[in-house]
Design brief:
This protein is about 30% helix and about 25% strand. By secondary structure, the chain is an alpha/beta fold. The protein starts with 7 loop residues before the first helix and ends with a strand.
Length: about 350
């Protein structure tokens, strides 16, 4: 269909139909014997899924930056199940999951692709391993496979409020000028889902694909680092050009180039916050930090990480570090902590 003002509504409803069919295709049938999965128990402070085509160096990277030995060889599909490894960095433990190589059509279940991608959905971020020579093609194909199952890489959730209702018709509100969609198009998309009563508040100039993502409600927004391996086969100019792309790290597992910087970028992307604890009248314990995540690094989260019952008897906390206006600062449970802060918790009845 040719794209213009007159066909926008038709294209919107076709996209909605396509999204619905994709979701039905991805749903695992209820009947039949249980398939063999290979999800690994989540451990450590965060989980990183290592995804890529066969023979791009995933197992070699896992063996190099963790203490785990994952079988690596010169032929494809050496790894046939998920192999977990642990990166010990700055007092935190990051679980790195070496997943079997993805092939084109993985979202439809080819080459155990469905299990691989389902494993990726439970991770905190994706590390996409790419061959430096075929990087752009592999990146495009892998991104498409992940998008087909509702994983959105390096995107933020659209600022749209949507709630289906039983009565009252469609209540449509836009708090900004919309250039890609209008109320007529929204009604056509919602009618594809048989939704005629709903409340929709759009707070940004979004496209129809983002609207469908919100209606579907099962999308996962994840951070991703594109890691180009085998840079020792390229010229320095080509490597420099690759390295300047956003969310990109260039490495060579064979030569051991830039691996320290890759671990540092994983740490920064995960947004880890280390918090040290201290008892009253004693020096802080710098040997074993509490590791929290950005967006979940309040005093309340820290108390829960120490022990889940502490919040019930929480009185106040004393904080030293960059988040404190003066040292120490007396704070409540909602105070946001920053990296390498020190906290001393006072409980009710402790004086």
């Amino acid at each position: 269909t040719q794209k213009n003002k007159a066909t926008e509504g038709h294209l919107g409803s076709l996209k909605a139909k396509l999204a619905k069919l994709r979701r039905e295709l991805m749903e695992v049938p209820k009947k039949g014997p249980a398939g063999e999965g290979f999800d690994v128990m989540k451990s450590g402070d965060a989980r990183v899924a290592l995804i890529g085509f066969p023979s791009v160096g995933k197992s070699t990277l896992l063996t190099t930056i963790t203490k785990t030995k994952s079988e690596a060889a010169g032929y494809e599909f050496t790894t046939l199940t998920a192999v977990p490894g642990v990166i010990a960095y700055k007092g935190a433990e990051i679980q790195l999951l070496d997943l079997p190589g993805i092939i084109e059509g993985a979202a439809q279940g080819k080459g155990r692709g469905r299990q691989v991608i389902a494993c990726a959905r439970t991770s905190d971020m994706v590390l996409m391993m790419l061959d430096a020579l075929n990087g752009p093609i592999q990146k495009r194909l892998l991104t498409k496979e992940l998008e087909d199952v509702g994983i959105r890489l390096n995107q933020r959730k659209p600022n749209i409020y949507f709630k289906a209702k039983k009565t009252g018709g469609l209540k449509f509100t836009a708090t900004c000028a919309l250039t890609h969609i209008d109320e007529k198009l929204v009604k056509r998309v919602l009618s594809e889902y048989k939704l005629h009563n709903a409340e929709l508040i759009i707070r940004e100039d979004c496209k129809v694909d983002e609207l469908i993502d919100v209606i579907e409600g099962n999308r996962i927004y994840m951070k991703c680092i594109y890691c180009y391996n085998k840079i020792d086969t390229m010229t320095i100019e080509e490597v420099d050009q690759l390295a300047r792309e956003p969310h990109t790290v260039v490495i060579s597992c064979h030569q051991g180039l830039n691996l320290g910087y890759l671990v540092e970028r994983i740490w920064d992307t995960l947004g880890m916050v280390r918090v040290y604890t201290k008892r009253r009248g004693e020096p802080p314990d710098f040997s074993d930090p509490l590791v929290l995540r950005e967006g979940g690094s309040t005093v309340e989260n820290a108390c829960h990480a120490i022990h889940r019952t502490i919040n019930d008897t929480f009185k106040y906390a004393l904080v030293w570090g960059s988040s404190a206006k003066h040292r120490p600062q007396r704070v409540g449970a909602s105070h946001e902590l920053e990296d390498e802060d020190v906290i001393c918790v006072a409980q009710k009845g402790s004086g």
